[in-house]
Amino acid sequence: MFFYNDRKTRYHLASNILGCACLLLTGSAVFAEENDNFTLPKSLQIHGFLSQGFLHTSDNNLFGHSDDNISVDFRELGLNASWRIMPELQVALQVVWRNAGQTDQDDLRIDYGVANYSFYSSESTLLGIKAGRVPTPAGLYNDTRDVASTRPSVLLPQSIYFDRNRNLGLSADGGYFYAEQRTDYGDFLFNIGVINPRTDDPSFKHAIVGDTPGEMTGDTSWITRLNYEWQGGLVRLAVTYGEFNAEFQSHTETINSLPGSFKFNPLIFSAQYNAEKWSLTAEYALRKIQLKNFGRQDSKTTGESFYIQGTYKLTSYLEALVRYDQYSADKNDKNGERFAERFNVPNYTRFAKDWTFGLRTELTPSLLISAEYHRINGTGWLSSLENSNPTQHWDLYTMMISYNF
Fold first, then answer.
1. What is the pTM of this model?
2. Would you say the C-alpha torsion 159, 301, 244, 287 has a positive or negative sign?
3. Which phi and psi (to 5°) does residue 9 adopt?
4. How many Å apart are CA 87 and CA 272, to the nearest integer?
5. CA–CA distance, 283 with 271 (Å, rounded to integer)
6. What are the start-end ranges of the E strands in 252-297?
7. Distance between CA atoms of 363 and 327, rounded to whole angstroms?
8. 214-224: per-residue pLDDT in tens?
């Protein structure tokens, strides 16, 4: 497992792994040329991806200086490999370099490194365990959100899949038990795991303690998800619930000497219908957040999020998307007016209502271009690191070019 909280240590570790991977690939190719009988294991698969985003906003900043400007500070480069060592055991690793403005600055990291052992398998049942840095099973898109080609749009619905806290949501160090059961009435998939959350997102710490020096570390947490699929994915349903814990230890005396405690309980309901040319997706989430010992009155809030999204294949290579996405930091104060009066901040920092219209085309099986327009009321899911004085009503234009190999 990868319990590395020091940024420099993580960087050198990821650099070494990526370097070793490149050396192994290069060395294997050279060895293969010199030894005609040499072949890589048939079960070894090596892939990668490269994505470059372009963003423009009428106001506010997203992933760099995009306000009345075009930001190119949104890019992702990843290398992944999987190897089925034996029928019951598979290992997988993905190393990613990502830049997303001040929310994710040129950091090389291990997105996942997993050992997957299935200890029971039959025609209808599969039981197994996973350990390491494992993609977090949450909602419909979280497991594969790291690769642009697996997302329906440049940006996932931000009310549920926050990009400002990408690392916290994407994967965690720990272990899982999983089960799959195929029946005449559909397929059931179950995951439950004990994890240690990743807390290295700059925006995560800043949203809670601002610029206060100190260290935010993950604590023992858990998450579970139950999926149901009918007729090979024609209908997909899921429910996710978990508890994410973290502690903040201040390096100053301005905060209570006790560690600050962060507790997050997400509950997500998901549904999707996939027809031949169109799909309809909706997710609804309740997010309970509890803060203790942060030098102010302890707080408990329950946020609310939902979106409804439709896609339609205009041609065999062109797909259109429309989505409405709504976020409220507190379901009992949806417009943020009570919070604004109490803390003297704009009420629109507590909600966001986002209409999205997009197009995507696969020029080749490996090359994807996506573009979309967002009309947004509110700034609830923007990073405070990039927006000290945000504007309520704003437009967002995005385009992304992605190449997979």
1. 0.88
2. negative
3. -60, -45
4. 32
5. 6
6. 260-274, 278-292
7. 34
8. 888 999 999 99
